[in-house]
Amino acid sequence: MSATPPRPLSLSARGPLRGTVTVPGDKSISHRSLMFGALAVGESRIEGLLEGEDVLATAAAMRAMGATIERGEDAVWRVHGVGVGGLMQPAQALDMGNSGTSTRLLMGLVASHPITATFIGDASLSSRPMGRAIEPLSQMGAEFNASPGGRLPLMVRGLCPAVPIEYRLPVASAQVKSAVLLAGLNTPGVTRVIEPVPTRDHSERMLKGFGAELTVEEGPDGRIISIRGEAELKPQQITVPGDPSSAGFWMVAASIVPGSDILIRNVCLNPTRAGLVTALRMMGADIESVDLREVGGESVADLRVRHAPLTGIEVPPELAPSMIDEYPVLFVAAACAEGRTVARGAHELRVKESDRIAVMAEALGAIGVAVEEHEDGMSIQGSGGEPLAGGARIASKLDHRIAMSMTVAGLVSRNEVTIDDVAPVATSYPNFYPTLDALTE
Ligand code: S3P
């Protein structure tokens, strides 16, 4: 994947958001649909796949390891899998672009196959810690040759058969959990992950749906997830629900821009993902769930969001795993609320596509918001609904969610806000800016 040239964008306050928006398919579910389809025997069909760069990196990698993956003119993706154990040696390095999810989950798959793969990525991904996945996968027998600090580029040599382990997650990370479970798919016996703090459970739900023998129990030390290896996955028809993380930008934008009233269609409300809705409601946001239903084993609803005065809160730290990707835009909501918001217990933000605590503290500070950076979060003094000063150039640091969050901040800024590079938005939400234009027409 070649580096895209920077795309700067300037914006200033806009009128209310109105109308209906359908957010793109969930990124986590999209990655897993392609990976599991590529491991099933036969044809899986995927509707509503997120066609963002991160997911396309997963598709390219699965093709490089033998799967056939095609997008039909009907926008349905068809995946012919190679079967668990059937992944082939990729001829070249796997370019993961900006995508941590592709990297860590695929490291898990490679770890228990008799193949060697090199993972490379962009500057952001190459600065992120992979040791958290290397550690359990090494215990299963895979060998790693990583760049200093356990970073990309790194090489994985899989072991087949690998050794099943019982692994207690030291960090609340669905990517690490999934890496171990995916390695367990081709490992004889039972591989177990103990998760003291629940994180997004799409791997568990979907692997069961694909026919893997997977159980989840509540143990004294957290959730115990067991998968029996040498699994046979059966092809599936998947409808990917809308991404709650992408919906988050519109929830906050409509909440803070006076006069807004929007309907966000088809939002996945899996409880391990819905923390932002809870936090915004605590702040006084007017978010109504309409037509709660089930799509592909996930709860989905349409969300009607109307402008409402927000009040600062102490964000419950236990919400962190269910809204980990939403903190940047929550900080923007807090910047517009009455009073102070304190968010702690979110260390993990420091190792996302950027250090989201440092980058958001600097960005909000630059547009006139009083922020105090903590090691594990941030305190923010809100404007009480008054416009933010704006008038600054923001560095998005190859982080799509920083670019989109600061765009939302720009909608309520008195003076122009320039974002130095919005190209990374294409990793998760290629249609974000046209959608913004349509909502603010
Ligand atoms: C993801 C897990 C989370 C999240 C990421 C997607 C996944 O990462 O931030 O955007 O699909 O499993 P961590 O596992 O690092 O918390």
Automatic annotation (TrEMBL):
The active site is at residue 325. Its EC number is 2.5.1.19. It is an enzyme of class 2 (transferase). Pathway: Metabolic intermediate biosynthesis; chorismate biosynthesis; chorismate from D-erythrose 4-phosphate and phosphoenolpyruvate: step 6/7. It is found in: Cytoplasm. Keywords: Amino-acid biosynthesis, Aromatic amino acid biosynthesis, Cytoplasm, Transferase. The keyword Transferase applies. It catalyses: 3-phosphoshikimate + phosphoenolpyruvate = 5-O-(1-carboxyvinyl)-3-phosphoshikimate + phosphate. This is 3-phosphoshikimate 1-carboxyvinyltransferase. It comes from Sphingomonas rustica.
